[in-house]
Amino acid sequence: MFLAMFGSVEQGIIYAIMALGVYLSFRVLDFPDLTVDGSFVTGAGVAATMIVLGYHPAAATAVAIVIGFLAGCVTGFLHTKGKINALLSGILMMIALYSINLRIMGLTSTNSIGRPNIPLLNAETIFIQFQTFWSSLGIDSSINHFFSMMGVQYLPSTWGTLFIMIIIVLLIKFIVDWFLKTEVGLAIRATGDNKKMIRSLSANTDTLVIVGLGFSNALVAFSGALIAQYAKFADIGMGIGMIIIGLASVIIGEAVFGTKTIFRTTFAVIAGAIIYRIVLGLALRVDLLDTGDMKLITAVIVICALILPQYFEKRREKNRKAKRHAERQMEHEHVLLREGNAIAKAQSD
Amino acid sequence: MPLLKLSQINKLFNEATPDEKIALDQINLTLNPGDFMTVIGSNGAGKSTMLNMISGALTPDFGEIEIANKNVTKMPEYKRSQMIGRVFQDPMAGTAPTMTIEENLAMAYSRNKKRRLKNGVDKKRRELFRTSLETLHLNLENRLNAKVGMLSGGERQALSLLMATFTQPSILLLDEHTAALDPSRAELITNLTKQLVEKDQLTTLMITHNMQQALDLGNRLIMMDKGQIILEIEAEEKKKLTIAKLMDEFQRIRGEKLTSDKALLSV
């Protein structure tokens, strides 16, 4: 149980980067960007291909981020310059990326042009590289010692992956927070909020949409590159439904933690991604369900995340109003009582 | 040297269909630096279309637009906005509702500068925003971190006005910016407009449906009808103008009685 939860949290944190990307397009730019399903695989494919070809895993990841950025820019370009509907330009890009991803992964194969998957079983990954440094610190044994004293039986082999991912995700969170408060960031937010207004303040909304989608898909590809290295394979089908997972994370996070400030919202999105993984992990432990049911479970989780907050908000509002009403009644009675006493006193005098 | 010059502007909508409409018909107009011109006319007279031509939201079918002796006819809207401040009729249109007051002001502040990867609101700017908001007397200076969506229509319109004039644009375009407000708020915004325009001697073009407002504000007045400028009144003459005189003038030119249009040209 503990081990399964641990795995969910680890994965959740890696997927949180993708969720932050979806937050940027879906919420900040108000652009339902379906490129994500393709650019996630692009990130995974580019990283896996380069690692197999012998490049340093960090370099492979960096290139994956850049290619993801470019993919997002193309979607933005189709929408703004080609005047293609937002959903459609995302779908077009997603479809196009499917073939492109096959070709990218095909670079590792000598006898075919396309290739649907790349295993990374014995390859170097940034997690393995970090592991060599991490195990020299000897932190794993002390943490595991602590947990075994608490009576936990099955312990993870390493805490290093979790540690490095927390650092990376926090770093990205702070970069996103900072970026959205810069002059460019403010203009991007306004583009999603009120295009007419920001254009009248001399901002080129076309460029901002293109750059914003680029940034968003760079994060998605980054997440894909890390997942490929974490799971030790890249597969052409690994991106299916990714936009829904990202959306689920954003919606769950926002519903649980609120959206008062950007700082809080980005935190909520990360937490949402982790909660989503945990819920999914728990659901898959039910004997009746099979791993093939994952997408169905995802759909159910998203539907719940969309409907439940409305219900809770309604109830909260009702309670709030009832409480405030009772308070005002009390005040009113107090006033009456005081006046009554005053009259009684005056009469007795 | 004129600051703004429209020459022979023509615009048709739905051309060559039964719904063809002549929006602008041979419009010529010049504004000199410091001019404050009010524009009146009934619905469909082409007032807003003309403003949208100047701002770049629409492009003329024929004709040319010059700002400060530079031909801007083909310049995209966002570039032209560096020189042009705008306030819209809809109080929701001029601000970003999910962003805070100071963030909105920060965007207005970077209007005539290149937007960079630099904090939009820093300590120095916040002070500047605070002192500017004080001039509105709406207590907004103490609500810098409030989301603009929480403000009332009047407050939002006052903020829009401040944002439009923040970087002293060459031209200020006001498109019936008091029309959607209740009378007392409209008066507040009108006074504010006067104050801000006078402070920086802004060259202004203001559309209004309110004749009294058109007479009270500015040094020049034009009346439009069916896509044409039918009446131009200059400084000295404008001071002596009354609503009754305007109505007579309209009737003399158009041969129709304007009073029947009272609902549109409210007195």
From TrEMBL, chain A:
Q: How does it sit in the membrane?
A: Multi-pass membrane protein
Give the CC-aspect GO terms.
Answer: plasma membrane
InterPro entries in the record: ABC_transp_permease
The residues that cross the membrane are 12-29, 86-106, 159-180, 207-230, 236-258, 265-284, 296-312
Q: Which keywords accompany this UniProt record?
A: Cell membrane, Membrane, Transmembrane, Transmembrane helix
Family annotation (CDD domains): TM_PBP1_branched-chain-AA_like
Please list the GO terms describing molecular function. transmembrane transporter activity
State the source organism's domain of life.
Answer: Bacteria
- List the subcellular locations: Cell membrane
Q: What is its main location?
A: membrane
Q: Which protein, by its recorded name, is this?
A: ABC transporter permease
